[in-house]
Every structure is written in structure tokens, then in C-alpha cells.
Amino acid sequence: MATVEEAARGVVAALNGVPFLLATKWVADRYKQVFAKTRARHLRRIEQLYVPARINDGTATFTRDSDVVTGDATARAVWTSNVVGRYVRASVVWYKIDAIVKSGGNDALKIEKKFSEDTQTSVAYNLVQRFTPLPSDARWLGDSVVSMRRRRPLLKLTIEELNIEAPARDRVGSSAEVYCEAQDILDADGKLCRSLEIYPYYEKSEVYAIVVYPMVPTLRPLDQLPPGVDEHVVKEGALVDAYRWKMAVAIEAGQVEQAAVWRNEFRTQETKWQHWMMDAIRADKSVDDLTFILKGPNSSVGIRSDIINARDVVYDRWPR
């Protein structure tokens, strides 16, 4: 495979006087420009998403207009720093846990908003991780989230659809059925990342298979161009920057006519580059991806037999 350096040398060879270091940066920038626009197949990776089990050990006391939730000895034993960022509920409303604090000499939960319901003393509670962080470098998410234990995909909803279907999020304990992309949150390392809400909240820990498309990396001079990325494509993109650089040099030197020539070359190359970008994106998509989409999940592969959407109904009625 060609390297960034080799593509940059092609730019330098095409235009005399272009600095080599600038050419390597242009090649790397053009690579990022192309694949920041799409879900790049060559960057795709499969990840496993772990969702911890709900916590409902012991009992807890919720006091109206207080932002501190206290628990008995059994509850306090499982209220560790890991529960910060999760949500707790006594009756109806979910409250985000901000911190573990001391109350009466014992560990207690500090919630983000004051408890707005009637005081409840020594009652059963639920504590769940509503929003699960994705890998911090995840830019795009694939179109499926699959329960590894149940071996079936979850139904994808928007956050608005889930809010309409389950505004109170009152189901806890049954297996998850749907997921949606939620707000950005901080992960365990303090990095801002995207998150998923998987609902209903299951009583036990679960692992889900997801497909992640990470942020496009910044290539260094000795890095190889990824498979499926042609050297001549990024070279053509870098030539846009090279022509613009030549135009700027001519302007600074007072060579107006030469600057006009480079300006015309720059604009022509930029128009060509738009077509090269589309070709690069199309080349990155594989035929097997399209075949998989056309065959669908109810093909002879036998992934699932349940009817869960309109497409499955049509497929089930189609004569075979």
C-alpha cells in the first residue's frame, strides 16, 4: 500500500517548488475531508457495549425538597462511586446521581434535582444506568444494536419517539427491546462521548454488539493509506492546495498574471476534486454491504424468524 509520503512526493513532482512537508499535510487533510462525510467502511469496527445490572438492594429514604437520598446498610454497601452518573427512582421520576456524600456519618446519594414527590421512608428503589457511553472516538453508529445473550437486534427509535412511547420510563426488569441515541455524556475517563439509552432497563448486566465508525484519524507521513483509498485520489485533492499555494506565492511576488493562471488552475482542480471525492466514497463501499441489505435479516442465513416490522410482514407473505 502507498504511504502518505509517497502520495506527497507525487504532488511535489507535479509542481516544482512545492514544500514536501506541506504536501504531506495536504494529503492527510484531503483524506480526512473525504471520509469525514461518510461512514467509512475501512474504519468500521465491531465493539461490545456493557450495560451494568440495575441496583435495588436494601431500602432507601427519599425526602421531599431534599437532594440527599439515604439508605439502609444493605443499600449503602452497593452505593459505590460507580453509581455516580446513573439514575435512581423511588416511585415515578428518575433522578440523576451527582455524587456520593456523607449524611449522618454514612454514605448517601446526592441527586441533581431535589426530590419533588411525597416523602418515602425505607422503600424499595431502582438504580439504573440510563445512558451508556459509546467509545470516545465514535463519530457514527451502525444501524443495529444486538443483544448478545438473546441473539436478536433491538428496535431503533429516535429520542423523541421513545419519549412519546415511554415518557416515564417505568419498565425495569424486563429485557431490552429498543434503543436510541441520547445526549453526549462524560465516560469513565472524563472524555465527552456519545451515548445510547437502551430500554427497558434490564435487571441483570447485558452485553450488546454494536458497529462503530470512529473519527477519521490524522495520518502521518509514514502511515499507509488505508485499503480502498487510492493514492491518486488524495494526490488530486492535495493538488488543490498546491495550486492555491502557488497562487499565493505569485501574489506576494507581485506576479499578477502568474497568480491569475494559478487561480484558474486552482478553481478547475477544485471542481474536479468534488468528483474525485464522490468516487472515493463509492469505492469505499463494498458490494457485500449492498448484498446484505438486499437479502435482509430474514434471508436463508437464519438470523431471526420474528416479525417485528412492516418489511418482515411483506417478506413473510412473499411466496417461496
Key traits:
320 residues, alpha+beta, 4-stranded antiparallel beta sheet, 8 helices, 34% helix, 26% strand, elongated
Please outline the helices and strands.
Blueprint: H1 4-14, H2 20-35, E1 45-51, E2 60-62, E3 68-71, H3 73-78, E4 87-89, E5 95-103, E6 106-111, E7 120-123, E8 126-128, E9 131-133, E10 138-147, E11 152-153, E12 155-156, H4 159-165, E13 172-173, E14 178-181, E15 185-186, E16 192-193, E17 195-199, E18 201-202, E19 206-214, H5 231-252, H6 256-284, H7 287-295, H8 310-317
Parallel strand pairs: 12-14, 13-18
Antiparallel strand pairs: 1-19, 2-3, 2-7, 3-6, 4-5, 4-8, 5-6, 9-17, 10-11, 10-19, 14-17, 15-16
Largest sheet: 7 strands, antiparallel
Q: Report the end-to-end length measured between terminal Cα atoms.
A: 46 Å
Spatial ordering of strands, largest sheet: 7-2-3-6-5-4-8
* Global mean pLDDT: 89
Strand content range: 25-35%
Strands, total number: 19
- State the secondary-structure class: alpha+beta
